[in-house]
């Protein structure tokens, strides 16, 4: 009986001690729980802030990538356009160019046949030259791959060589009058000699035609030279390299 009473008292004492300890620890536990909640809230806020920063960085990189792709595309288009211009400029072996070259090559033969009084052969060459002149222009206009920069120069050059040879040979054979005189002398203004004012001169038809062709060729050279892009200087190249 005494043992049972002692056990009961011991149990009560332990429960009382445990309850007292729990009451003492309760404020500490509450503070610890509140601190833990605050830490979790702070961690959640930091996590959200970090997520927002990462999202902004991602959007920034995405925009930068789009801008870079756009720049690359524009550069590629410019390079492609430049390459097409270079290919067009260097496209020499085309049918129109070969026809122009053939007219230039046949011009001496045309003059030779006229000097040898082979007028049928000369007429045949002249007809072929006229047909080839029409044909090369039609091909160059209707077929883009056959157009070239040098062709725009060769075509008038071939015409000038052919006409100059034809008139020179005909004049040598006295088939064209050396002088072209009207009832009155033709009035010419001599370019570059303004101090001599107006002069009355006899005009040589063949010389006038050949001179005109030479002036046209010289003018074509000048226009072509002015249309070329300016040469790239060393300073400009260094700037590009630095960029």
UniProtKB/TrEMBL annotation:
Positions of transmembrane segments? 161-181, 187-206
**EC class of this enzyme?**
transferase
Can the keyword Membrane be found in this entry's annotation?
yes
Enumerate the UniProt keywords alphabetically: Lipid biosynthesis, Lipid metabolism, Membrane, Phospholipid biosynthesis, Phospholipid metabolism, Transferase, Transmembrane, Transmembrane helix
Would the keyword Iron-sulfur turn up in this protein's UniProt record?
Answer: no
Q: What reaction does this enzyme carry out catalytically?
A: a CDP-1,2-diacyl-sn-glycerol + a 1,2-diacyl-sn-glycero-3-phospho-(1'-sn-glycerol) = a cardiolipin + CMP + H(+)
Quote the InterPro entries the UniProt record gives: CDP-alcohol_PTase-I, CDP-OH_P_trans, CDP-OH_PTrfase_TM_dom
Chief localization:
membrane
Any GO BP: cardiolipin biosynthetic process
Q: Tell me the superkingdom of the source.
A: Eukaryota
Its Enzyme Commission number(s) read 2.7.8.41
Instruction: Tell me what topology the record assigns in the membrane.
Output: Multi-pass membrane protein
Compartments where found = Membrane
Instruction: Cite a single GO MF annotation.
Output: cardiolipin synthase (CMP-forming)
State a GO cellular component annotated for this protein: mitochondrion
Q: What is this protein called?
A: cardiolipin synthase (CMP-forming)
